[in-house]
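Just wondering, does anyone understand what follows?

——
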Amino acid sequence: MQGDLHEEFEYQVRRIGERRARWRYWWDVLGFMKPFAVKRKPTIAYSFPGYSGHYQNPSIPDMLRTYFKIAFRNLTQSKGYSALTIFGLALGLSVSLLSILYVADELSYDRYNEKADRIYRINSDISFSLRAIKAASSPTPMGQTLKKDFPEVEEATRLGKYGSHMITSHVVKSNHIIIREKGVLYADSTVFNVFTLPMLAGNPKKALTEPQSVVITESTAKKYFGTTNALNRVLVFDDNDVRKVTGVIEDIPAQSHFQADFLLPLHELNDAKVNKWGNHMFTTYVLLRPGTDPKSVEAKFEHILQTYVDPALRRYFNTSLAESRKAGNDFKYSLMP
């Protein structure tokens, strides 16, 4: 076959020239190629009793195409069963996804605080005079007493509700803007040492030390004044409480266990100044020093009870802590992350 191609090539050179003869030569070569010369897919031999032969090893696209065909046929043949199966699968995936999102959201709470792993709230568990009280509050002097008596406590701060506990919102005015607000809290000046509340304007060390002052969030400043440059501007609460803006902080993240748009100085309240161990009006937080085991701090709460609560019981109730416990009463304080 090769000799015939060469003879034909020489003839065509003499007839139409070498360049065109070469094109004709390659065309003739392709014309001699047969289907058996093209590489085929490998085959696999099989043998069963009474049967034998070969079949081609299918490619991945062929397999996928076959799977989809079979799935489609099953869906169309059993429509009711298929619909029930798909609905169950979709429902299961949705519930799983929602559960994951819920858990992730819960675990993200208060993670914005740079010192989140060292911040603890003091909870109370009190049984007294046939009454059982579990609350996220503690005696008024608890925080500063822990800071003074326990070297493991680096800082303490308190938060309290503004106004009467029966009132859930307050009217706030600035010139012609009047809005009813809910996020109004009292706070110690040390709140900025415990929680991560970046201040955009003002001095965090002095913002809540001045009388009749208020610290507001960034969005609140823009809402009332159109800018975050709101220092020394005036806000009026409930028509008669006039306050000067001494600080503007970033908005508190939604994943925070407390929300506030306005922070007022807690030291203004007489209840915040008294040294009463029976007064549980405020929520107290402590910042432990790095490396401190909270259990070791909780173990020292008995010292607080013996040193401060026992004298208070003797003074106001004419009984001792030991006698009160014998009567079925008890006082417990714990740290909540």
Observations:
- The longest helix spans residues 79-107.
- The mean pLDDT is 88.
- Residues 28 and 34 are 12 Å apart (CA to CA).
